[in-house]
């Protein structure tokens, strides 16, 4: 575990994942981060969760671990539900006992994609695949529990580390001559680092209010808790994201031979799991409640490509 004992203990799960890795770095500014690996904390095992909760005694649990293999989940629903639904329910029960707060990440895939404009938090949900249903069950478990909780629904996460679309595109663009990318699914890419910064901001703000007013953490957090949409700014398609990322590399490396990109339809790229055609998230609530807005997606893609190419 990454650890230093102090009062502001933050238990981060999924530290080897894209979001968890960024959280470990960024949350060090607001507390003492404990980030057990899967060998110490296995989210399919409720007893393992309870044991680590007892050992760490956190003020905050930031649950970035998840079953994220969207297509594979279609054939492994039990495992997806154990990690994405049972584990958040156990965290909710355990944190409620000690007055801690849970931060959890959910997904744009809780929606069916039939809305024409961006989704707000109160829009009807309707997941199209097992992954979306398992993540929705995690949200429901937290809402039904007594613990103060913040569920950040995010979308199309990428970063300089981990398995993600932007890294795959940069690799394929160097290896192949021509890429065919889906251009009729609409959403917003979210940089894992921006998600981590937003999380630190929310934790820091709640801790400050609690300290300034001599109130308990849950007293301050409960009136604000619930679901928040938290994605990058703007909108694009997978095709738009691939084109932008490859153009950034080309600008940095004018002599590089990179693949051309062709726009195709979802029907031309069948996958085991169905995806929403529109999963844009309206992040106004996050801005109004916490004064936080993520940069436009193009700006963040440029930063990440710069990091990867440099
Ligand atoms: N990626 C996206 O595009 C996207 C979009 C919307 C929402 N989200 C949500 O954002 C959050 C973070 O996603 P991410 O992209 O950072 O995921 P990720 O890179 O796939 O990382 C998943 C993490 O979960 C851990 N994990 C999986 N099963 C576990 C288990 N049984 N016990 C303990 N740890 C386990 C993994 O550990 P190992 O390394 O040991 O496997 C890894 O650290 C998740 O809640 C995800 O649903 C992601």
Please give the number of β-strands: 12
N to C succession of SSEs: EHEHEHEHEEHEEEHHEEHEHH
Question: What distance lies between the first and last C-alpha atoms, to the nearest angstrom?
Answer: 30 Å
CATH class value of one domain: Alpha Beta
CATH superfamily membership of one domain, which one?
NAD(P)-binding Rossmann-like Domain
Beta content comes to 15-25%
Q: What's the assembly state of these chains? A: single chain
Radius of gyration: 19 Å
Low-confidence stretches: 1-7
Largest sheet: 6 strands, parallel
- In CATH terms, what is the fold-level topology of one domain? Rossmann fold
Mean pLDDT: 94
Spatial arrangement of strands, main beta sheet: 2-1-3-4-5-10
Task: Quickly give the structural class.
Answer: alpha/beta
Explain what this protein looks like in three dimensions.
The protein is α/β, with parallel strands linked by helices and 310 residues long. It has a domain at 9-164 and 189-233 and 280-291: NAD(P)-binding Rossmann-like Domain (Rossmann fold). Helices cover 42% and strands 15% of the residues. It is built from 10 helices and 12 strands. The protein has helices at residues 18-27, 46-56, 77-98, 130-144, 165-175, 192-213, 217-221, 238-252, 284-290, 297-309; strands spanning 9-13, 32-34, 60-63, 101-107, 148-154, 157-158, 178-182, 186-187, 190-191, 226-229, 236-237, 260-264. It has a 6-stranded parallel beta sheet, sandwiched between helices. Strands 6-9 form a two-stranded parallel ribbon. A two-stranded parallel sheet has the order 7-12. Strand 1, helix 1 and strand 2 (32-34) form a beta-alpha-beta unit. It starts with 8 loop residues before the first strand and ends with a helix. 47% of the residues are buried. Residues 1-7 have low confidence and may be disordered. It binds NADP nicotinamide-adenine-dinucleotide phosphate. Residues 13-14, 16-20, 38, 41-44, 64-68, 83, 105, 107, 135, 154-157, 162 line the site of NADP nicotinamide-adenine-dinucleotide phosphate.
């Amino acid at each position: 575990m990454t650890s230093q004992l102090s009062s502001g203990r933050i238990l981060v799960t999924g530290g080897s994942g894209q979001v968890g890795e960024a959280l470990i770095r960024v949350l060090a500014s607001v507390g003492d981060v404990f980030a057990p690996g899967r060998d110490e904390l296995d989210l399919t095992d409720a007893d393992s969760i309870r044991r680590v909760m007892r050992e760490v005694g956190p003020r905050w649990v930031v649950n970035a671990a998840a079953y994220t293999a969207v297509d594979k989940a279609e054939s492994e629903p039990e495992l997806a539900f154990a990690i994405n639904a049972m584990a958040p329910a156990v965290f909710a029960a355990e944190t409620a006992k000690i007055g801690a707060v849970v931060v959890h990440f959910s997904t744009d895939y809780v929606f069916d994609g039939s809305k024409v404009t961006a989704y707000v938090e109160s829009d009807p949900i309707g997941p199209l695949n097992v992954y979306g249903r398992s993540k929705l069950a995690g949200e429901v478990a937290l809402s039904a529990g007594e613990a103060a909780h913040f569920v950040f629904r995010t979308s199309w996460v990428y970063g300089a580390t981990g398995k993600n679309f932007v890294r795959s595109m940069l690799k394929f663009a160097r290896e192949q001559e021509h890429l065919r990318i889906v251009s009729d699914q609409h959403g917003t890419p979210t940089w894992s680092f921006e998600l981590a910064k937003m999380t630190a901001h929310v934790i820091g703000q709640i801790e400050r209010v609690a300290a300034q007013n001599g109130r308990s953490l849950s007293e301050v957090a409960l009136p604000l808790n619930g679901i928040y949409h938290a994605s990058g700014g703007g909108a694009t398609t997978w095709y738009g994201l691939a084109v932008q990322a490859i153009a950034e590399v080309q600008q940095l490396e004018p002599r590089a031979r990179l693949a051309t990109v062709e726009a195709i339809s979802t029907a031309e790229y069948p996958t085991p799991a169905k995806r929403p055609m529109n999963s844009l998230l309206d992040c106004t609530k996050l801005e109004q409640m916490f004064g936080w807005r993520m940069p436009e997606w193009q700006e963040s893609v440029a930063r990440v490509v710069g990091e990867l190419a440099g």
